[in-house]
Amino acid sequence: MTELLEGICTTRAIRRYRPEPIPEDDLATMLFAATRAPSGSNRQPFRFVVLRDGPVAREAKAVMAEGFQRIWSAKREADGYDSGSGADASSPKARMARTMERFVERFADTPVVVLACLRRYRDPDPVEGASVYPACQNLLLAARALGYGGVMTTWHRAVEDQLRPLLGIPEDVLMAATIPLGRPEGNHGPVRRRPLREFVYEDRWEGPAAWAVDPDGARFTSAGPPRTG
Amino acid sequence: MTELLEGICTTRAIRRYRPEPIPEDDLATMLFAATRAPSGSNRQPFRFVVLRDGPVAREAKAVMAEGFQRIWSAKREADGYDSGSGADASSPKARMARTMERFVERFADTPVVVLACLRRYRDPDPVEGASVYPACQNLLLAARALGYGGVMTTWHRAVEDQLRPLLGIPEDVLMAATIPLGRPEGNHGPVRRRPLREFVYEDRWEGPAAWAVDPDGARFTSAGPPRTG
Q1: Which has the closest alpha carbon to B86: B224, B226, B227, B229?
Q2: Does A123 touch chain B (CB under 8 A)?
Q3: CATH 3.40.109.10 segments of chain A
Q4: Mutate: best of A199, A214, A221, A222, partner B, most B CBs <10 A
Q5: I want to staple B67 with a disulfide (CB 3.0 to 4.6 A). Which of A101, A166, B159, B182 is the partner?
């Protein structure tokens, strides 16, 4: 299944959407694919609140947009997006800043926003995300398969206190991710990451894995936040 | 990309492996695909410790096997795998019990075990899994693309106190998931889940989404742990 592999390696974070809505059939197909993901003991505790054009959905998207703008402004400053190479408008950093600016400015108009949730069945736990984020990744991959694109963010947490009562989300439910979806203005394509050897160890932590080499043509991260690895 | 969609919907949890090793090229391809996953601010904090045939790897797999056997025994009892429909050897519950029994008994001989980790760059957080579990899902899908199979478990936590010093994993690293991989003895194929309408809401928590209907031929969960939804 070479197309499966290719699809995985070419699913980019898409933050610019054309204004057209997503047909309900396609939405159902994407969410069906999302829910094929694994979860602990196959308990299937993932839930998806889909926000489109209803009055509550519009209000929720506006609340998120306001929170996202606030976070982005702080991050732009803190991560120095306008200094260093960011001062050059043609740099990757400056391009990313323009994309983010547009993303948060127009967020309320995103065709579809999916709020992925985890219905907890035990106390909060560092590995509980194993039962919701695989489904989020399936959703992003399925979107790409159908010609859409999206991005996963947790920035809704800045406005969680407003969103929870507005959407009626119970206290024991984790609001795990916000995933805007739409037809991309840009394109999917090979994603950039650090060299594979930085991620893959053998036998023990930081044990070298000589075989962990990137394929020909792999693209590497050239700019971004400070490296932590 | 229909094959991408089909691959997502037919990636089963594979717990029975043929004894053959996985060529290093294939391992590299799978891990490359894993690391194409998104992470918060594209910080790429996921790390993969690959356990194959080295002496430390063998010991770690044996330690995990012992922990898994303990967890499975307790779960078999607690979830009543041998009572109710489980008393009928041909029931899905009894079949699952046999698969699990074999999985834990032979775990130490699994060709490859990948321990997926998260190198934390801030305090533990309920949404930190967003930066490691998408990569785990990519790994499982890429395995399926190349004719392998695996399953994601967090059962390593029963023996984390032994594994951490053995593998030299720093205290600030989350041991997020254990993913055994190998050539499947069984087959991939459509997975079973609850009806889509139980997962998908519109506009608000539990808001009905009339369009969220399963495609023709969808298969449904017929047995398993108590429903929490």
Answers
A1: B224
A2: no
A3: 2-189
A4: A199
A5: B159
Kindly determine whether residue A54 and residue B203, on different chains, have CB atoms separated by under 8 Å: yes
CB pairs under 8 A between A and B: 310
8 Å CB contact of A129 and B133: yes
User: What's the mean per-residue pLDDT of chain B?
Assistant: 94
This prediction has a pTM of 0.96
CATH of A2-189, one of 1.20.120.330, 3.30.360.10, 3.40.109.10, 3.40.50.2030: 3.40.109.10
Query: Which chain A residues have a beta carbon less than 8 Å from that of B49?
Result: 201-205, 207
Q: Which amino acid is at A106?
A: R
- Give whole-number Cα distances, A103 to A9, A108, A139, A180, in Å: 23, 9, 19, 10
In chain A, which among 58-97 make CB contacts under 8 A with chain B?
none
- Ramachandran sector of residue A167 (left: φ over 0; alpha: ψ -120 to 50; beta: rest): alpha
Indicate the residue type of B73: S
b/e sequence A60-74, b meaning 16+ C-beta within 10 Å: bbebbbebbbebbee
- Quick one: three-class SS letters along A121-185? CCCCCCCHHHHCHHHHHHHHHHHHHCCCEECCECHHHHHHHHHHHHHCCCCCEEEEEEEEEECEC
Is residue A187 less than 8 Å (CB to CB) from chain B?
A: no
User: Which tens digits make up the pLDDT trace of A55-100?
Assistant: 999 999 999 999 999 999 999 999 999 999 899 999 988 999 999 9
Q: Compute the 3-state secondary structure of chain A and give helix, strand, coil in percent, each to the nearest 5.
A: 45, 15, 40
Q: Which chain B residue lies closest to A24 (C-alpha atoms)?
A: B211
H-assigned helices in chain B? 2-9, 24-34, 55-78, 92-105, 133-145, 160-167
Q: Which two tokens stand for residue B22?
A: 């996985």
B107-158 pLDDT, tens digit each: 999 999 999 999 999 999 999 999 999 999 999 999 999 999 999 999 999 9
Kind plus residue range of the DSSP H or E element containing A200? strand A200-202
Cβ-defined contact of B129 to A134 (cutoff 8 Å): no
> What ipTM was reported for this prediction?
0.96
* pLDDT tens for each residue of A98-153: 999 999 999 999 999 999 999 999 999 999 999 999 999 999 999 999 999 999 99
